[in-house]
Design goal:
With 196 residues, this protein is an alpha/beta fold. It has two domains: 17-154, Glucose Oxidase, domain 1, CATH 3.50.30; 159-193. Helices cover 31% and strands 27% of the residues. Strands 1, 2, 3, 4, 6, 8, 11 and 12 form an eight-stranded mixed beta sheet that branches. β9 (131-133) and β10 form a beta hairpin. It is elongated and about 65 Å long. The model has no long low-confidence stretch (mean pLDDT 93).
Length: 196
Amino acid sequence: MLREIGVSNCTLPPAITGLAQSYKIAGPAFTLSGARGNLGAHETLLRWTEFLAKAPSGCVVVCQPNDDSLAHMGELSAAALNLRGVRGYVVDGGTRDSERILQSGFPVFCKYRTPADIVGRWAPVACQRPITIGGVTISAGDFILADIDGVIAIPAGIAEEVAERVEHIASTESRLRKAILSGMDPQKAYLEFGLF
């Protein structure tokens, strides 16, 4: 559907997956970026907890850590975001405490898992500024959808139009599915319904 309206490059890299296959997230992006550096433990944790306090209820945090070796989410942070009403966390990086996060049910999508934490080595740099993940630029307020198939970012300016078109396509797909399951020839079904 996005292709039909001329929008491409909305899919985040396939390496970013949910800790659980059942995880689903939908909501506006709250963007976060960070960087490695020689910081004291106190400074790292001050910056991190400042971010945790800023993330608003109803958002999906999307993080570009600019790092491929540390965990950018852990159990206590996931609990804090969950209690604040944040819908989930998507990171182009890692997570730790995965078993406890899974037990909490807070949806986390990441590239890898590691026990290496950020303390003294990494900290947030900016919130609510555009970030890029795998060639996809995500701005604050863009609509994030994540499930077992991956993560997409829909630009805020077209989110309403996309939602309306998706409702129409879902209705057509329901009729198409019924026809296929009733034995209709796949090519005939495609020609009749205009999609497959």
